[in-house]
């Protein structure tokens, strides 16, 4: 089992809360393809997370709220990117303090082969371990089983690894 380096999105994680900015925009004239392209462009440009929410707008029109979290230094640049990609006339902005787990990846062996597991640590102790979906999907395709079956095998291996860590043993 090999351990990998810290998750790059969490280089600023420490013992105290970190500040992030939430940007959001309501869209009622954007296609799914346009929203998907904006979503990916924002992730590629450094957004920490991007998500959409189905909403109802004026005159009961269906719409989509596009939201993202970013670091404060990236907020203005990403707000301009939202405007550029969506054609919206404005972006809302609010600051949040966020407490996050330190993250790292480990590789564990499953009955189907190795899979990366994202490990969340609090005060230096692993408290959560979740298999990476892309690895699970790859194993499912390789072994011609469902993603659900491969995911179950990966979850068993991840939880075994976590239990070993809690007991202080090597996994």
Tag the structure with descriptive keywords.
single chain, 171 residues, alpha+beta, Alpha-Beta Plaits, Ubiquitin-like (UB roll), 2 domains, 4-stranded antiparallel beta sheet, 33% helix, disordered N terminus
Describe this structure in words.
- The protein has 171 residues and is an alpha+beta fold.
- The protein has two domains: 18-98, Transcriptional regulatory protein pf0864 domain like (Alpha-Beta Plaits), CATH 3.30.70; 101-167, Roll (Ubiquitin-like (UB roll)), CATH 3.10.20.
- The protein contains four helices and eight strands.
- Strands 1-6-7-8 form a four-stranded antiparallel sheet, with helices on both faces. The protein has a four-stranded antiparallel sheet with strand order 3-4-2-5, covered by helices on one side.
- A hairpin with a 5-residue loop joins strand 3 and strand 4 (62-71).
- Helix 3 (133-143) packs across helix 4 (147-167).
- The N and C termini lie close together (7 Å).
- Mean pLDDT is 90; it is low at 1-12.
